[in-house]
Amino acid sequence: MSFAQVFSAQTSLLSAHIVTIEIDLSTGLHAFSVVGLPDKAVEESRDRVSAALKNADFEKSSDFKAPKHNNRKIVVSLAPAELKKEGPLFDVPIAIAYLLASGELQTPIEDFLFFGELSLDGKVKATTGVLPLVQKAQREGFAAVFVPEENAAEAALIDDITIFPTATLSQIIAHLRGIEEITPFTDPPPLASYTPENHLESIRGQDHAKRGLTIAAAGGHNIALFGPPGTGKTMLAKALCSLLPNLSHELALEVTSIHSIAGTLTETLVERPPLRNPHHTASYVSLVGGGTIPRPGEITLAHRGVLFLDEFPEFDKRVINALRQPLEDKIVSITRAKGSAVFPSDFILIAALNPCPCGYYGSHKCTCAPAALQRYQQKLSGPIMDRIDMWIEVGAIEHSKLLEKPNESGESDAIRKKITRARTLQKKRFKKTDRLNSGMTPKGLVHHASLSEKCANILNTAATKMDLSPRAYHRCIKLARTIADIEDSKDIQESHILEALQYRPKQER
Fold it and tell me: Do the domain assignments include residue 349?
């Protein structure tokens, strides 16, 4: 046999694609070529495969000669040809395809899918993006997947497909020859034991800000915390993430897939909403995503979680304005010369900022010149401020309160119960696990957040005085709906509208 076909897979952007590896052997001077838009790492697989076949320990089968020891012309084709092939994960399937084409293996493998990088001595190395690859294999009807041993627990998150953990190339060959079978990985991945962190008890005072965090967490609303340095803005922001409930299994798989592809996965299954906290010197590409071949940035890694931007106005203005689309549409579109991509970016934004460059605006400590203050405030455009539902001032705390013992009244647990109850109401309302009040459409507002005549009059009068945009007007209604849910109120009351309005930025902001 001089021809063989093996199935593998790779990720492209945030999607997985089945890749068919075909190999043809013909007589002649030795040549080893890889076609099908391979990148440098894929082209170099010919050397890794050759060395692995030569150096691997095949005690339980037989020794194989390196391809170059047999005068053959080897052509490896990776299909579909128009898909750019990236990374070293094709090493294992190329090696298997070569052995099939040369007659060293004669096992039917149409129902199997292979991927993994080979070391020069035949060991199989871990790779990224395993979860979406196995998901794709399961959807396409493959019976089993051979994965690197280190990735087996992640692959086992997918049901109805057999996972064979592999440590070496010789182990795979011995299994295919029926000499020694690989035991399928059946142990469920251990669930992380999560003990909620009670950050709120460590924060003295700031009851107004804590109320704002409760509302933001319950309805998925964006929130800005502003005030002088050292008043607890960063602590409050981190507390919000600890108040959020665990992700559902479906959403946990979605988030885990994103982090697996990006190479940022630190646990088998991401069960907690992710918290991303990029520094204010972060570049546009690192935050939004992009590159020659578009890759996800921090706002996509924060999907289903929290994006915390400390020192918000210190970020590059281009970076701040790039948040417009993801904050509105929950996606980010990236277009480059070599391709375009649409990445999910459904997150809660927490922006922390000082009122001026020195941080002490309004007090005798402020040293900012009027021009510097104006430049600082102009960093935040109207459209960005419109998209942030809640603006909460975090004021200075009395020094005497700082010496008080931490509050052990169970404040965090009580707030978590409120948030869970409010989110349960939203789940029933929208009949979706991933829809919150912040994501209501104008049509949804009519059905789920209708206002009484008195509430509408209050909102309309305030909207005129505050010169609210239509977007801000609708966001006030969504916020009021969440406040009503927290208070177990079926209908939006006047007090809910008034509270929602007080979170809009004041004129001086």
Answer: yes
DSSP notation for 392-443 = EE-----GGGGGSPPP-S-HHHHHHHHHHHHHHHHHHHHT-TT--GGG--HH
**C-beta of residue 16 within 8 angstroms of C-beta of residue 257:** no
Residue 303 CA to residue 283 CA, distance in Å, equals 19
pLDDT at 60 (0 to 100): 46
- Of 384, 416, 436, which closes a domain? 436
Integer CA distances (angstroms), 58 to 6, 63, 175, 422, in order: 21, 5, 12, 60
Per-residue pLDDT tens for 56-91?
Answer: 765 544 556 666 667 788 999 999 999 999 999 999
Q: Of the ranges 14-18, 96-100, 359-363, 418-422, which one carries the lowest mean pLDDT score?
A: 359-363
What confidence tier does 431 reach under pLDDT thresholds 50, 70, 90?
Answer: confident
Answer for the pair 250, 157: CB distance below 8 angstroms, yes or no.
no
The answer to the question of residue 186 being in a domain is: no
Q: Which two tokens stand for residue 229?
A: 């340095």
State how far the Cα of 225 lies from the Cα of 351, in Å rounded to an integer: 6
Per the DSSP assignment, residues forming a β-bridge with 340 are 335
Residues forming a β-bridge with 117: 125
* DSSP class of 51: H
